[in-house]
Amino acid sequence: MKKGYKRLLYFESIIFLVLILNSFVWNILNKYTILLFIGIILILFKIFFGFEKDKHRYTKDIIMDTIIFLLIYFMCYYLLGVIISFASSGNHYTIEGFKTFIIPIIIQVILVEYLRYVMMCKSEGNIITMISTILLITLIDTTSAIYYADFTSSYGLFKLIALTILPALSRNIGFSYLVLKTGFKPLIVYQLVMGLYYYLIPIVPNPNEYLSSIILFCVPIIYCYKRNTFFQKTHDREIERDYRKKSIVPLLTSTAIVIIIVVLTSGYFHLWAIAVASGSMAPKINKGDVVIIEKINNNINKLKKGDVIAFKYKDVVVVHRLTNIIVEKDEYYFYTKGDANSHEDSFIVEKDMIVGLVNYKIPFIGLPTVWLNEL
After folding, report:
1. Which of 88, 138, 214, 265 makes a 20 to 30 Å CA pair with 116?
2. Which pLDDT band holds residue 239 (cuts at 50, 70, 90)?
């Protein structure tokens, strides 16, 4: 092994040892101190090895292709949310949210991807130092999770391996291979989007842990395969310009579809799509149909007898038909009934319970959601 490779391997081994001790003994590298630690590593790397400039030719093309890939992924992911249900991600648009989650993620992604790039460049194709770099970056990604993992139970080990270690390995093997071809900038775009969407979008799909592990493991592999095919084609300036022009259409199309899906499924906008979990409105609306709810906000006077409405009763959204509306002293009282039920509902719906008016349905596409919820 060349002297330069040995120096790099020694350097990475020391960092690896520090991270191992932190994961199992110290736990001093939290979301803030880990940033300082990576910064110190970069400074020392600069002193001992120097940095390589990113001179990759197709960076803009790959960034655009990465954005298209991510938009298509989120289009599929949110469509999957109609099947597996959604969960609120909480409100992170606060000073505390930015300080605790968003800013640390942004800084760490940039630092780690640049560290990956300079280390892989210095490896110069040496298998041992490349494997060492992959393991090192993986440990940086998982050091906190390892410290807090429950090693006394099989379930705790499953969560650590399936939800943390295997996805990190999958991502870092592929990214460490790609970074030499693409540079670090496209990978920063990918990592920022995948790392921040949970904190920036108010409602997200809610897969169980088994499905999450599959998604987290497979998506980076698909992304890396897609990027690798980019370099199997011959490029020249004309092909490069043509590629950028052709990328605009899928970029705009996938962006529009993702926006529509998020708008319809989030519940934060004027229209809201939900899956019907019972047959109480058959045959007009069947179990497993997805209905589009038009929110009425305070426009209660828009409602009339015979309308199909959605309202919340005991934290469950119910879709039933209005059978009567009574107004007493400016207070509205709504009586409802499922078309397939023999009697009116045993409760009175008040105006603050009403979500909106149901005018459209998409037959049966919500059946998987219902089946999963009944398991």
Report:
1. 214
2. very low
